[in-house]
Amino acid sequence: MNKETRIKKIQEIITRDEKNPFGKMEIPWNDKLEPKNVYLIPLEYLIYNKYNGRILSRTQSLEKQNYSIDVETEEGKKKIEELLWHSNETRNKTTQQSINDYGQQKVGIITKDGIIIDGNRRVMLLSMGRKYNYFKTVVLDVTLEENPLEIEKLETTYQMGEDEKVGYNPTEKYIKSKLLYKKLTQKTYSANPEKHTPDMNTIKKIATWMGVDHNEIFKYLDTMEVMDEYLEFLEYDGIYTQLDKREDPFLNLTKWLRTFYGESSKKGFDGYKNEDVDDLKGISFDYIRAKYEGKEFRILAEGQRSNHFFGDKDIWNSFRDFHYSNMKNIQECEIDYNSANLNKHLDDRDSKFLESTKVNSNESFLVENIQMHEEKLGYNRAVDEPQKLVSKAFDALNAIKINHKAFARREVQKQVGELGSKVFGMLQQKSPIIILDHIIEQLESLDFSKIQEDEKNEILSRTKKIQQIGYQITKNL
Fold first, then answer.
1. What is the pLDDT at residue 279?
2. Which site among 213, 306, 372, 439 is 20 to 30 Å from 118 CA-CA?
3. Are 393 and 343 in contact (CB under 8 A)?
């Protein structure tokens, strides 16, 4: 059924039932609440809105792949219904049962040519249920093309209101705010003042439409900008499905970038540069890709400087270098942008990326790097508690298996020797008596019965050296 036919059929129902409508409802229209008649419109007269806020990330991702959805065809209709169903299967099943039991309870809104402004999900469920063949709806007296801005406002108010946001993929509100800002200003938003000065009136307008404070819109826009950078970083530009289940770390990272860029935050290590913040962003992208969140992600840069890696120069440099040195060995598979299911293909690519970070063990170097530097951060926090640090070091030494073949490696033995020198150096500054006691204890514990013949001369040489040092100490005292 084409547009002209739909307009004619819907108008016939309005003309027939205008004096005796199914009901009435007030809607916000032209900046005031207007009473509107509610009509029963056959489902066959309706057309899904492919830019519905509930599935915006999906349709945008498909269009990025040059997949055109013609909502007036049966194929396009089925595709939209598939996307709507998978947007929240659990809630859809619950609502579907409610519709089957009691029918449609919430009135929808359509344009005069049948485009669904509010109620796409309800129409999908009514069509699937096959129990009801009509839709209870207000009919606007315009088409989408005749008053796009007022319809956008109405759609946003209904779709992104507090009651509806619960059922939305979290990504949708970020994309929606970005598209609204661009539509209203004809400019692309950027948090970088060198690129863009935000239009405050537009920000407040979007906030009113979406039912949130204007600062929340700034957060949405700032976060969406970082999300877009992430997708570009991975060459996933515009494939918004790859943002799924990653909202929280993006919110954290956006806050960090806003805090640290400008090289003036006291929460970062002394003397950090914007280039260091760039490293923080790039490394965070790798952890976001691997779906790290919560405490494991926040330790990169969240809170006061004593609580995170970016707050200590030595720890950050070590963390960064370890990450980059391991990332050099990662071999990425090519992206097949013509894949029949690009979302699944990219999910598989990300899974293979995570798997490739597991070198010679079942543990990813991403995990190892965090654990290793979290321990160093703990040492810094315990700087005023030497007994606690010594106990940890003692436990670590006890855990070493000296009979393991790896312990005999030259580099390991060298590190053990350096560790011993470090310990003696620390004691020498505070307590020479403890050092002497330790030397005596070690000398007394030597088992000379195990000395090889070819070692005797070297041992005699070292014994004379010990006697000389002992004589010199006596002489000085």
1. 98
2. 213
3. no
3-state secondary structure of 203: helix
Alpha carbon distance 358, 20 (integer Å)? 69
- Whole-number Å distance between alpha carbons of 38 and 25: 7
Q: What is the pTM of this model?
A: 0.75
Distance CA 155, CA 161 (A): 10
Q: Which amino acid is at 9?
A: K
Q: What are 408's two structure tokens?
A: 């005999």
What CA–CA distance (Å, rounded) separates 50 from 71? Answer: 7
The whole-angstrom separation of Cα 62 and Cα 341 is 10
The domain spans of the chain are: 3-161, 182-372, 411-445, 450-477
pLDDT, residue 163, reads 47
Distances in whole angstroms, Cα of residue 399 to Cα of each of 53, 250, 264, 393, 442: 56, 38, 43, 10, 21
Tell me phi and psi for residue 298, to 5 degrees.
Answer: -65, -25
AA letter at 131:
K
The span from the CA of 172 to the CA of 78, in Å, is 21
Q: DSSP state, 72?
A: T
Burial state string for 128-153 with b = 16 or more CB within 10 A and e = fewer than 16: eeeebebbbbbbbeebbeebeeebbb
Alpha carbon distance 113, 140 (integer Å) = 9
Cα 205 to Cα 218: distance, rounded to the nearest angstrom: 12
Integer-rounded Cα radius of gyration of the chain: 34
Counting as low any pLDDT under 50, the low residues of the chain are: 162-163, 166, 384
Identify which of 142, 212, 168, 158 has the alpha carbon closest to the alpha carbon of residue 25.
Answer: 158
Structure confidence at residue 159 (pLDDT): 75
| CA angle centred on 53, ends 51 and 57, rounded to 5° | 75
Contact yes or no for 395/321 (Cβ under 8 A)? no
Q: Own/partner pairs for 78-81, CB < 8 Å, 24+ apart?
A: 80/48, 80/50, 80/52, 80/55, 80/120, 80/124, 81/48, 81/124, 81/127, 81/128
pLDDT recorded at residue 339: 84
